TrEMBL record:
The family this protein is said to belong to: Belongs to the CcmF/CycK/Ccl1/NrfE/CcsA family.
Keywords: Cytochrome c-type biogenesis, Membrane, Transmembrane, Transmembrane helix
The organism of origin for this protein: Arcicella lustrica
Domain of life: Bacteria
UniProt key word Lipid metabolism: no
TM spans (from-to): 6-29, 49-69, 89-119, 131-152, 204-223, 235-256, 276-292, 299-318, 338-359, 379-403, 429-449, 461-480, 492-512, 524-544, 823-843
Pfam entry (one): CcmF_C
Domain Cytochrome c assembly protein span(s) in chain numbering: 101-322
Every Cytochrome c-type biogenesis protein CcmF C-terminal domain range: 343-546
Stated name of the protein: Cytochrome c biogenesis protein CcsA
PANTHER family to which the protein is assigned, alphabetical: CYTOCHROME C ASSEMBLY PROTEIN-RELATED, CYTOCHROME C-TYPE BIOGENESIS PROTEIN CCMF
Keyword Metal-binding included in the entry's annotation: no
Amino acid sequence: MLHTTIGNIGHLFIILSFVASLISTFGYFKSVQTTDLLEQASWKRFSRFAFYIHGAAVIGIIAILYTIIYKHYFEYHYAWSHSSKALPVYYIISCFWEGQEGSFLLWIFWHAVLGIVLINTNKHWEAPVMAIFGAVQVFLCSMILGVVLPIIDLKIGSSPFLLMREAMPDLPVWAMKPDFIPEDGNGLNPLLQNYWMVIHPPTLFLGFATTLIPFAYAIAGLWRKEFSSWIRPALPWALVSALVLGVGIIMGGYWAYETLNFGGYWNWDPVENASFVPWLVLVAAIHCMIIYKNNEAALRTSYILVIATFVLVLYSTFLNRSGILGEASVHSFTDLGLSGQLLIYMLFFLFVAIVLLVIRWKDIPSDEKEVSTYSREFWIFMGATTLCLSSFQIIAATSLPVYNKIVEGLGFVSKLAPPADAPTYYSKFQIWFGVGIAIFSGIGQSFWWRKIKKETLSKHLLTPLLLSLILTFVAIFFTTKSQVGDFFSTPTYITLLFAGIFSIITNGTILLDIFKGNYKLSGGAVTHIGVAMMLLGILFSSGYSKVVSINNSGFAISEKDEAFTKDNDKENKENVILWLNTPSEMSDYTLTYKGVRVEGRELPEYLHPKQVELIENDFHAVALEDIVQQGKKYYSAGDTLPVFPENKFYEIDFRDKEGKITTLFPRFQINKKMGNAPSPALKHTIGGDLYTYVALAPNLEEKEWSKTENFTVALKDTFFLNDYVAVLDQVKRVDTYEGKPLGPNDAAVQATIKVMGKDFRPYEVNPIFVIKEGLVAMPAIENDEIGVRAKFTNIDPKTGQFGFAINTTQRDFIILKAIQKPLINLLWVGTLVLIVGFVMAIIRRYREFKLMRDKGF
């Protein structure tokens, strides 16, 4: 049965939200344009009501789309594309925004929420600000409108409520069965089945949404010729935006760190860059907005940077969703035919902002006097300039595919390619920008709080400078002594180390001084300390990350696979082979690979494959024995339990020199959407992380066995299995088979074949011969440690000999890569300090705004 009604209602809500936002925009525009106070108030009430209807319609769209996904209405293309019956509720939430339409809807929702907040918190700016909000919502709602204009046959937007037969009309199944509904959906990309993906996208899109608020205030200020008064209400929101967007970016970095296997948290991917650049420009804008009070020259710069932040958010959306980065980024969406709309959306607001800015430019107040080198405004402006230069370098290289498209559109040929080694390319520039940001934050704060003059310069800055130099060389000494790295081999790192330490010392001493007076003013110093800690964490964890899985065996892991042989056999040298249950030495650890494990969705620990039998294409398994974990019985033998069959976890024991064992479970994922994907397991310590992942593992389900060899031997006889020496140690009667007792007329005997492995360790294979209910069973018994499969085929009581059929295959092994990430906790702790600083600054600036608002200013 097709659930078409719910989709029709959802599409009706989309049209309602689009029309209501359009009406609200028109009403607020009229309210700004009229000079009659009664008419202004009337248009405001009308527009406010329209925006509330818009917000209610957006909530209705979200409720209906989530219902379709949650109830598995797979007749809808969106539900079929992104969800499946096997997913738990928290991942079904992630399905909502995996697709383009759902992520646009999430963005629309946050704008609706923020718009309602603004309506009820700042009546003076309501009309012009909400006119901008409404216009943005009109464009965003058009992205999910999914209507085709008659006559010109122009499609506007892509609806999330398309039925399968509407989205894929050419499938032959519709001719045979028009009401066909798939049994299950494609499911969520397994790489996104991570708790960070439940909270990272909403946070990131909230960050994107909040950049609209300072933009709307800036445009409103230009529109109403209130050139400076917009700063006070916009500043707290700009800080909120920087906080939320920054946290969203860091969340994405941590998701990459613990889910992907490129060896870190930031890979300078084009989509990563496109979200990072607006944040850099926004932080620069915040600094200019702060110094405007002391120097009107910063007002024009504030306008430019606030406008640029929002336009860059739109540009990042265009890069991500137009398909233009399809070959340059693994994060980008495929083009749904919305690239033209996205381009119009971006160019419309860019055009409006530029035209207004040009028209009002001469009227914007500006301080014409030259800013002194010894003024606090100069040094803060220098920091803001560094942030802008950093963002320009990133976006210029990231935009090369766009440049190529523009040149091709003009009829020429452009073959400019993005950097082949993106981390190296970007890092060699960004290190110096990081140095500048750290230095200027320390000097700028000193000038801001200590009112430094030319005569007192050495008094205030000489001591922090000398102390920073001393601590820098102390850090270099201990880094070299502990063999973390050699700073003298990379002098650039010494400069960044000094800059980070200098920033912490200068901001730290200022923080102590502020706390003696009013701690509420210390948000800036705390934030800058957080940034400096993050820079130092990045310096050590990335600059001095060290591969410790060095292959000392003298043998290449692979002589044919290009992934191992390229770059002078790099991966052959930087990976180790771990054989099943065979201890191996690696750096400061003894490693033992214990075997493959299965992930149960509702279990605290992993399962041994022998405990369950996977049901193909069902995301469930049958328990072959009672499942008991941590002293609690979860399932009985024969029960069906939910599992994640695409995930294989490899249990590895890491024994340190003191004998302490840490067990890690790196994951290898059979991912049909993204290709097979290894995910790391992390060993956390105070001094850093051990980052490990399985680079290669044999598919034990598809292993090739040798031809069967038949052996007839007596007890204690020796025979040879390829390179192994085997002995039939004993044959004994057993009373159970497959965990169940045998009947009175049944019989079973089990052999113990001892095999001496290549490492001179004894292994056992225990084939069994069963007569049950008059039938003979000779199950194949495998030992993955040595790659032997044996069947007990015959018993000759007259001669006392026993027959066995033996096959051999590749032993179970994995290829492991391990990387030390020293002092990475400085990065995460610095992030928390940064967040605290932003929160303190937001509270302070909001109180200032509220105080002035309540006074009528």
